[in-house]
Amino acid sequence: MARVIAALLLACALALPAAAADKPGYPRFMSLRANEVNLRAGPGERYPIQWVYRRKGLPVEVIDSYDVWRRVRDWQGTEGWIHIRLLSPMRTVIIKADTRTIYQQPARDSPALAKLEPGVIANLLECRNAWCRIETKGRRVVRGWLLRSEIWGVTPDETVD
Hints:
This protein is mainly beta. The protein has one helix spanning 2-22; strands at 28-32, 37-40, 49-53, 59-66, 69-73, 79-83, 87-88, 92-95, 100-103, 112-116, 121-128, 131-136, 143-147, 151-152. It has two domains: 24-90, SH3 Domains (SH3 type barrels); 93-152, SH3 type barrels. The chain has one helix and 14 strands, in the order αββββββββββββββ. A five-stranded antiparallel β-sheet has the order 6-5-4-1-7, with no helix packed on it. A five-stranded antiparallel β-sheet has the order 13-12-11-8-14, with no helix packed on it.
C-alpha cells in the first residue's frame, strides 16, 4: 500500500511542471482573427453574447483561460470570453486618446512619417525601451515609431522583438 501511495505521489509531482508549462502566462496580448467575434458572459456557447466585435485585428488582453475559451479585456476595459479559434497570436496595437505622430526613428526629433487618429489599429513589430515600432494597415503602409504610452496592446515593461 505504501508503495502505491508513493508511486501516485511521484506521478503527481512529475505531472505538475508539465501542466504548469502548458498554461501560458497571463496577461498577454492577442488579436481578433475575424471581422465578427462574439464576446460572451462565460466560457461556453450557452452563455449570452454581451458584445459583438466587428474589427478584425483588434488587440485584446488575455487575462484567463478555461478549456478552449479565453477571458479577454479590450482597450476600453470591457471583459468577457472568446473562443480560442477566434483569436490570433498576431500582435497589434490601437492608438489611444489623441492623434499621434509616427516617427522614422525612436526619437521626437526624427522626421515625422504620418499622423494617426485614435482607434487606428497597427501591427506591432518591436519595442525598445519607451518606443515601439509599428506598421499601419490600410491603403498606405507606414512603418515607424511611437511612444509606448501612446498605444494600447503592449505592457509598459514588455520586450517585443
